[in-house]
Amino acid sequence: MTDGLDQLGPRLRAARRARGLTLDELAADAGMSASSLSRLESGKRQASLELLVPLTRRLGIRIDDLLVREAPDPRVRRAVVHREGLVITPLAPEHSPVSTYRIVYPPVRELPALRVHDGYEWLYVLSGRLRLRLGEQDLVLTRGEAAEFDTSIPHAMSAAGGRAATVLSIFNDVGERMHTHVADERAGRPGPDERAETSM
């Protein structure tokens, strides 16, 4: 009971007030004097399990709720993925509801096959020029431009011109784990023999 005790008193006071209890009411329920509780809340009395257990039971909280928790390491440490010439750097934790990636598209002679998957994608061009084929639209986005689209529409992306394009891409939780497949442009539906499951 040595970590985070400097904030234990104020948190105890906040929990008591949140439940509309006076010092006298909580102290009586916990079998202690109001002055002892007051000193505990102000940090003038050392906390002990003997004092805290009846108080937390009455407040409906855990002792851990009164202690300051150390913030977890905020850095994202995930491996860079190399796939089909792309360099994909994850920028969010693995189980984040919104998945963010830095993707480098290399210059290519031909646009990759159109793909579809559930979800939505938002992207922002950090450098270079990005070619975005979206349904019947064939667009070129330059640095500083953004786009948002329904990924159930057949689409493909590549660098435009002779240099790579670096893009910030954000997928929602549906689109992050993609069931992708090459689209049959003539029929407007997935090719039945070319399904593949891929995780970004």
TrEMBL record:
Residues 12-66 form the HTH cro/C1-type domain. Keywords: DNA-binding. One of its GO terms (molecular function) is DNA binding. Pfam families: Cupin_2, HTH_3. Gene3D superfamilies: Jelly Rolls (2.60.120.10), lambda repressor-like DNA-binding domains (1.10.260.40). The keyword DNA-binding applies. InterPro entries: Cro/C1-type_HTH, Cupin_2, Lambda_DNA-bd_dom_sf, RmlC-like_jellyroll, RmlC_Cupin_sf, TransReg_Diox_bact_type. The keyword Methyltransferase does not apply. CDD domains: cupin_XRE_C, HTH_XRE. GO terms for cellular component: cytosol. SMART domains: HTH_XRE. This is Helix-turn-helix transcriptional regulator.
